[in-house]
Design a protein that fits this description.
Layout: E1 3-6, E2 14-16, E3 19-23, E4 30-31, H1 40-50, E5 53-57, E6 61-65, H2 67-80
Antiparallel strand pairs: 1-5, 2-3, 3-4, 5-6
Length: 81
Amino acid sequence: MSMTFKDVKPSAVAIEFGKPRLKCECCKRVDRPLHIGISQAEWLKAANAVGWRHVTHEAFDFDSVCPSCVAELAADVKEAV
Ligand SMILES: [Zn+2]
């Protein structure tokens, strides 16, 4: 079983009340910028820097996964080997 971790794409960022928003497709956690006035592109870069990922697998394709779920998924892959 192979799992691929890539940077989150701009299309995964939703805009809610004028602010970008990312939702984890694994645990449903929502992340929003702490600062007002950050652009969607800047915030996406920050989200990728803290560990948000686009996770692709044979069984699923998650456009946005939070850092803690990414860590859990990565650990599952290691156990399966
Ligand atoms: Zn999550």
